[in-house]
Design brief:
Layout: H1 9-16, H2 20-32, E1 36-39, E2 43-46, H3 51-75, H4 80-95
Antiparallel strand pairs: 1-2
Pfam family, one: GntR
Protein name: GntR family transcriptional regulator
Domain HTH gntR-type: 1-49
């Protein structure tokens, strides 16, 4: 939740049994992507998220996944119409 305090990098590394460098990179990535903020001497906190920014990030993920899907479909020679039919069926199944 926004405002929640994250464990220190050292605590998390110890709890997950991973290197401190790994947790440091993860925290840096989270901060770079706007999910957390770090206050020197106080710690790292979850940031309030703007719904428009979250939606844009979700669209980017969907676009990347779709590109991979299209590439795989082209690899096996699947026509666009067939791919569209499969997508439509799966989309409708998820609505049920």
């Amino acid at each position: 939740s926004p405002g929640d305090h994250l464990p220190s990098m050292r605590e998390l590394a110890k709890d997950l049994r991973v290197s401190l460098i790994t947790t440091k990179r993860a925290y840096e990535d989270l901060e770079k992507d706007g999910f957390v903020t770090t206050i020197r001497g106080k710690g790292t906190y979850v940031k309030e998220q703007d719904n428009a920014i979250l939606k844009e990030k979700q669209f980017i993920v969907i676009e990347d996944l779709t590109k991979s899907l299209v590439k795989e479909a082209k690899t096996i020679g699947m026509p666009l119409e067939e791919l569209n039919e499969i997508l439509a069926l799966i989309y409708e199944e998820e609505n049920e």
